Amino acid sequence: MAAIDLKNIGMVFGLNGTRHTALEGVNLHIRDGEFISLIGPSGCGKSTIIDLVSGLKTPGSGEVLVDGQQVQGPGADRGTVFQDYSLFPWMTAFENIRFALEHTRVFSSKKEINAETERYLGLVGLSRFSHAYPNTLSGGMRQRISIARMFSINPKVFLMDEPFGALDSLNRIYMQDLLLRLWSQGTGRKTVLFVTHDVDEALLLSDRIAIMSPSPGRIKEVIDITFERPRCRKTLTAQADYIALKSHLLSVLYCEMLDEIEKQDQEFSERGVPA
Amino acid sequence: MTFSLTRSGYGVILFLAATLVLATAIPDALKQAVTSNAVFIGVIILLFVAFAASLLLHPQEARTVSDIFLLISVALFFWELLLGKLTLLDPLLFPGPARVFAVFGEDYALMLQGLVNSLALLGAGFGLALVTAIPLGLFLGWRKRLFDVAYPLAKAISPIPPTAYLPYTIVLLPTFATASIFLIFIGAFWPLLVGAVYGVFSIDHRLVNSARTLGLSERDMIKKVLFPAALPSIFSGAMIAFIMSFITLTVAEMIASSSGLGWYIQYNHEFANYDKVIAGIILVAVVVIVLMYFFDRIQKYSLRWQNP
Fold it and tell me: B207 to chain A: nearest residue by CA?
């Protein structure tokens, strides 16, 4: 069991004299084994929530509970994948995973660690690149290693902060399918907290989507995504309720932004376009 | 295997051959007092071999290799011609190459002993600085608050040239060896410390966060994450540290030692043996080049993850 509870979270940053409310009154209960996506425009505090659950930041007010326990700093019971900064550049693909294993799980022998490392590299199809340094690999390959590392340490929850945000669309599709496949394998799905700004990605992966809005960062709406799993990308995107959900998401997500842009346009036309 | 020579490559062969002819066929001026030019001839042959080997090992850089060797062989040729054979300048102050290289044959035992002594001091002082300055620098970089306290102090103390401590250190410490190890240590300490501190400062905090999510202990964090991540900066500090310690070493030896590379140069200066002084300088240059070469290799290997 590994539910995540965010209870009335508030967070204020001081930015050169001005106070910026990053989060205000955020309440969210994430069930055990649930895949939940946080979606919202930049500056809405999505990544801050990931940092709070991972223990990298402590909330200004409110509580963060994992498994009923208050989060006390970072720990290997929560696996993370960041956009492109999860791996250590001075370690090969193999060494990166082995390092994580050595420091998070108990093994009886070196041989066992190496075998486990090989297994996880194989899981993401990168056995051939085990001795390559991250700098020599593509962005997609690096993220596959990050994901293999996250799975290998066998945490209670997965925290993923725009893990596919820096990838091209083909690689992104490949990675989404890989993540879903690995996540659904075996017994007992992990709880996943997934940050994205891609509506299609959120719809394909999630059980629920929490839409956030900025200044102050808060959760605007939580939507249940009830499409049956395993989901097929082709048939899913053609469904009428998928299209309806997507347009709803987009409208909620962008109405504020569009309002803002419209307001700017209006001011601009009133002042006149400078020659 | 064949390789084509560039124009400067032909120049190298021409000038080296001409120098060899000068050295072997024409007798040295009496004033030069050359006992044997065997070593000089050996040096010329060595240059031939080194040139050929460099071309074979780095065929894609043939032009640069040829240009460098051309510069050396032209300089050697004119040194031999103008100072060695024609003795245009006072041979006491400006000895020819045959005289200078003959010194290596006469004094090699003394030079070797000096070299060993110097390297032992250098190794001890520099090694001591490595094992203290790097961990301390990493820790100071990691604990910002400690750094804020240490920084003004370090800023005041670090620019003092290590040789300024020399007379006092020699009085305080029992032997010349301990005194010079201490001075070399001081000379190497600050650049290494600065390299380690700024290495930590320049680490992307997202990388540190990634490490923190693995739940590492502080010790593991410093040893296994901060150290390798700061290594590029530590190496640039180590380069300066190495040069500093070499300068400190030679100066200390000149003033207070009875052996070593610096001592050899200073001692012969006192007897106006300028051929030996020049030979000593050449020896120092060769030692520095060899040490730098190994430094470079270690750096390239340690940072092999940096460039694909």
Answer: A85
In chain B, domain spans:
7-94, 104-302
Instruction: Return d(Cα B78, Cα B92) in angstroms, integer.
Output: 18
Predicted ipTM beyond 0.90: no
In whole angstroms, what is the distance from residue A99 CA to residue A108 CA? 15
Nearest Cα to Cα of residue A217 among A14, A26, A17:
A26
Per-residue tens of pLDDT for chain B, all 308 residues: 455 688 889 999 999 999 999 988 887 776 667 778 889 999 999 999 999 999 999 888 889 999 999 999 999 999 999 998 888 998 889 999 999 999 999 999 999 999 999 999 999 999 999 999 999 999 999 998 899 999 999 889 888 999 899 889 988 998 989 999 999 999 999 999 999 999 999 999 989 999 999 999 999 999 999 999 999 999 999 999 999 999 999 999 998 888 899 999 999 999 999 999 999 999 999 999 999 999 999 999 999 999 76
Please tell me the distance from the alpha carbon of residue A15 to that of residue A130, in angstroms, as a whole number: 43
DSSP classification of residue B223: I
Which residues fall within 8 angstroms of residue B26, CB to CB, at 6 or more apart? B85
Choose among B220, B228, B308: nearest Cβ to A136.
Answer: B308
CB contact under 8 A, B210 and A80: yes
**Domains recognised in chain A with CATH numbers:** 4-238 (3.40.50.300)
Which residues in B lie closer than 8 A to residue A134 (C-beta atoms)?
A: 305
Partner-chain contact A85 B206, CB within 8 Å: yes
Candidate from B206, B216, B306 with C-beta closest to A82? B206
d(CA B212, CA B225): 10
Cross-strand bridge partners of residue A193: A36, A159
Does the predicted TM-score (pTM) go above 0.95?
Answer: no
Please identify which residue in the block is written with the tokens 């006192």: B270
Write the CATH number of the domain with boundaries B104-302. 1.10.3720.10
Kindly state whether B206 is in contact with chain A, defined as any CB-CB distance less than 8 angstroms. yes
Contact at CB, A82 and B209, closer than 8 angstroms? yes
Q: Which of B202, B206, B212, B305 to mutate to test the interface with A (most CBs of A within 10 A)?
A: B305
A223: distance to nearest CA of chain B, Å? 29
